[in-house]
Amino acid sequence: MSSRRHIIITGFMGSGKTTIARALAHxxxxxxxxxxxxxxxxxxxxxxxxxxxxxxxxxxxxETRIIREVLENSPMGVVALGGGAWTLRETAxx
Length: 94
Description:
The chain has helices spanning about 15-30, 35-45, 45-55, 55-75, and strands spanning about 5-10, 30-35, 75-80. The protein is of the alpha/beta class.
């Protein structure tokens, strides 16, 4: 069993996920990751740009892949998901 632990913050767009994740990570002394920022860094485009250029389905595939990579490869941390990530079966976290 992995020693990696994550707290996942979900919610609607603009609900304060990033703010809560940042504050909780600070309290715990853990790393904080904002999934939309991770996607933008890795893909060189924002979520909005990916959706506008390639469609939402393409963005959700990227999002699902990166969620899994973050959870498998990152140390303990608090992760703020994007506003729609929690709505898809493919992004279910077990």
